[in-house]
Amino acid sequence: MSDREPTVIHTGGGSGGWAVAVILLVVVIAGGLFLFGGGYLGNRNVDIDVTLPRVEAPAPVTK
User: Fold this and answer.
1) Contacts of 36 by beta carbon, 8 Å cutoff, 6+ apart
2) Up-side HSE of residue 60: CA atoms within 13 Å toward CB?
3) What's the whole-number mean pLDDT along residues 7-24?
């Protein structure tokens, strides 16, 4: 068996990955605009009332 160097086969494509990335980016941006523009995420009003209990100060210590 003779020693040979590995053979690399390059098909010359490469533009398909960029196309998928661009399509995904457009979908994410469109989805974000839909959610924020439609008021699903951007205009949420959350009213939180916090009522603290009344705690009186302790009486001063006299000697």
Assistant:
1) 42
2) 2
3) 81
* Separation of alpha carbons 15 and 23, rounded Å: 13
Longest C-alpha distance within the chain, in Å? 104
**Contact in structure between 35 and 41 (CB atoms under 8 Å):** yes
- Tokens 């974000």, located at residue: 32
What is the rounded CA–CA span in Å between residue 61 and residue 40?
Answer: 57
Residue 44 CB neighbour total at 10 angstroms: 7
Give 43-59 pLDDT, tens digit per residue. 667 788 889 899 998 88
**Global confidence as pTM:** 0.45
**3-state SS, one letter per residue, for 14-44:** CHHHHHHHHHHHHHHHHHHHHHHHCCCCCCC
